Amino acid sequence: MNKQKRYQILSRLRDNNPNPTTELNFSNPFELLIAVLLSAQATDVGVNKATGPLFKVADNPADMLALGVDGVKNYIKTIGLFNTKAENVIKTCRILVENHGAEIPQDREALEALPGVGRKTANVVLNTAFGWPTIAVDTHIFRVSNRTKLAPGKNVNEVEQKLLKVVPAEFKVDVHHWLILHGRYTCIARKPRCGSCIIEDLCEFKDKVEI
To answer: Which UniProt keywords apply (predicted)?
Structure first.
């Protein structure tokens, strides 16, 4: 895919959604971190149902830590892998309180040192909470990048590096959200909704599905 076509794709996605954001509910960087940590192998809808009541009683590391593992489990037991996630939440909160003054570090290495936090989660927090031009590649973004040929790669790391290389600076902060939403609602896994896609004529997917 050439530079001009990429620019057209990103311009259309921007025009269609000028101010994209995550579908996870949060009101501060800590809540975002916990929501993303809980979202592995879970839907945003499911996470939001659990974190609504949870964040009402604990919207900061100290209050969350005071709940303890069992306390957190009571709020997130509807989410997959809740036992492990509850333990990671408490371990993370302890580190935040003891090592970071109960603040979320704006530092990739420090974020990735938190239990249950990998590169993708760190990218989401840095991008969505702090406006960094990071690109968190999940299954949706991986699929859209490869299917459209916007930024093909054999694994998520390859796609991330390709996107960072080919996406112009003016789009970098928001491209994560545009691609994830496009993959979630239009360029879906089993049967992409090509007929209603705003970038269909620019997409280089060979097996387009008309609806």
So the answer is: 4Fe-4S, DNA damage, DNA repair, DNA-binding, Endonuclease, Glycosidase, Hydrolase, Iron, Iron-sulfur, Lyase, Metal-binding, Nuclease
